[in-house]
Specification:
Blueprint lengths: L3 H16 L6 H8 L3 H8 L2 H20 L1 H5 L3 H10 L6 H17 L3 H28 L8 H21 L4 H16 L3
Helix pairs in contact: 1-2, 1-4, 1-7, 2-3, 3-4, 4-7, 4-8, 6-8, 6-10, 7-8, 7-9, 8-9, 9-10
Length: 191
């Protein structure tokens, strides 16, 4: 059984994925988590703190399932490809994470505090991808002239866009995987 703060964050992520952020109320999260609103205020100081920590929770959860790519191979380009593909898994936790991330990104358009947090999280992700690209270039398995940071930004943006299409049913899981593999090959050479 998860501890209370984790239980609250799981409930918040579920609600954000299902209903979005704009109408999210602390009372709804407390009902979903089976805890009192006072406990949410105690742990998170209010709705803004809850949203901030939920974003952090979603990021940590994504890192846990995408880091499996690092164990799948010793080749940096293969690790990069697998890390991107793991963003598309037909399991509830990944679907929930992807939907919640999209909702948080949409809300950040109107919320400067959330925008800054999302920018930081996105920068960490693209930095991790760029590092794998540099390692692949050093190993001679990726196009040496490619700008690692720019390639990482394009690939992460593609994954976010494809994620929205996959979640909405306008792109299949198989097609999303095919497009990611093709994008990595076009950006950096075959994996």
């Amino acid at each position: 059984m998860p501890d209370r703060p984790t239980q609250i964050l799981e409930a918040a992520a579920r609600l954000i994925a299902r209903r979005g952020v704009r109408g999210l109320r602390v009372e709804e999260v407390s009902a979903e988590a089976g805890v009192s609103t006072a406990l949410i205020y105690y742990h998170f100081k209010g709705r803004a703190g809850l949203l901030r920590r939920t974003l952090e929770f979603i990021n940590r959860r994504a890192v846990r399932y995408t880091d499996a790519a690092l164990d799948a191979s010793d080749a940096p380009l293969a690790q990069l490809t697998e890390m991107l593909l793991l963003e598309f898994q037909d399991i509830p936790q990944v679907r929930e994470n992807s939907a919640a991330w999209g909702e948080l990104r949409a809300t950040a358009v109107f919320d400067p505090d959330l925008r800054e947090l999302l920018a930081d999280a996105t920068r960490e992700w693209t930095d991790d991808l760029a590092d794998l690209i540099r390692r692949a270039q050093a190993a001679g398995t990726a196009t040496p002239g490619a700008d690692p940071q720019a390639a990482a930004e394009r690939l992460s943006a593609l994954v976010e866009g494809l994620s929205e299409r996959w979640l909405s049913g306008t792109t299949t899981l198989e097609r999303a995987h095919e497009l990611v593999r093709g994008a990595v090959a076009a950006e950096l050479g075959p994996a």
